[in-house]
What does this fold into?
Amino acid sequence: MADQRPDLLPGTLDMLVLKALHGGLRHGYAIVERIRTTSGDVLLVEEGSLYPALHRMERRGWIRAEWGLSESNRRAKFYRLTAAGRRRLEEEREAWERMSGAIGKVLRARMAGA
Amino acid sequence: MSLLEKLGLFRRPLDARSPQDVEAEILEELRFHVDTRIENNIAAGMDPDEARRDAEARFGDFDRIRDACRWVQLGERIMIQRIHFALTVVLVAALAFVGLEFFSLRESVHRMSVGQGPMMRPLFGLGSGAEIHIGIGDRLEVLDFGQNELVATEKVALDGKVLLPELGWVDLVGLSREEAEKELSERYRPYFAHEPDIKIRVEKSWMLGERVRVAGF
It folds into this structure.
């Protein structure tokens, strides 16, 4: 399964997680599913690797954690975006759009020259 | 912004939870994820064994991920503990060194008092031709040669002075051994019933801890 996943640029996971939390409170499993479904099953986050990233972002103050009850009535740790996290998401989004736009230009230039 | 701040550490006060609580929460959170995946796999039609295998494969190396989370949450404390441990080792070593120096000095004084130590050797037998100048950190053994009595064993302090009985702080740095002996003989005259004949044994000491025993008296 891992071989089928395209590699993402470093830092992309943070942006995807912040975006997934933009819609509200979610636990880790729900974040993975949110990214998978909204990307049309294209982006499959390596599930375990999500958690060190979540804890790191929590310590940086981008997200805040709290314990609550899941849909199955089991204790789960939920995350929500903070104001610092929203600002970070905007910065990440702008950087991503700049980069993807630049890559697009390169690709189009190659095709035009071919 | 420091490197540690860039890495996301030291941005907020230490977590008030105990390390055991933090680890228990990490375990509970990761277990919740794997169990939820298993439940959803079963709900999607997988048999339980297949559902577990799939959930574990999707999750990755559970122990490695738990350790990574633990490091993010507790790394700051772990670093502080390591620094604390290193400082403790250094302090214990320093205390041990000071203790050994102290007992070595006591042993030396004891040997001299029972007539077995270097004080009973021929006083001018070693290096009598070399001129020794007294410096900071040198250890001095001051002897009333006429009575064969130890007056004091002291180190020259950082300000260049030596604390001697009756005389108090005396500045001897820069003097040759002979000059210092004359100086002290002169100064001790009012305190002795006989004519003082002060001799000094100088043990040179270097700041880096290397000690070379130079000619005594």
Notes: Chain B touches chain A at residues 8-9, 11-12, 25-26, 28-30, 32-33, 35-37, 39, 57-62, 64-65, 68-69, 71-73 (CB under 8 Å).
